[in-house]
Design a protein that fits this description.
Length: 96
């Protein structure tokens, strides 16, 4: 399994430019504890596609500042609005 984000490429960086102080939240799938989603804080239902949301139910895992995320996750948020990650819970560390 990989901890690299998957995305759909539906957004462009101009759709939602990241700004200092922007926050993210992560969710862990209750039905498959190797599946995580990162998205902008309070935008799960707006930014995460229906086919990904159906992989839940979801449990909030953590929240933080987007600027502290690893570059690949910041890029996925800017490009797609979310990142879908498949990895072991102990391996999932979204911040630098």
């Amino acid at each position: 399994m990989s901890d690299l984000p998957e995305g759909t490429g539906q957004r462009s960086p101009a759709d939602s430019p990241l700004q200092a102080g922007d926050r993210y939240q992560t969710f862990r799938s209750v039905s498959d504890n190797h599946v995580f989603v990162l998205c902008h804080d309070d935008r799960f239902y707006d930014d995460v596609p229906h086919k990904v949301r159906n992989q839940g139910p979801w449990q909030v895992n953590r929240r933080g500042e987007i600027e502290k995320l690893k570059p690949e996750y910041r890029l996925a948020l800017a490009r797609d609005g979310y990142a879908l990650v498949r990895c072991e819970l102990a391996v999932f560390k979204p911040e630098v």
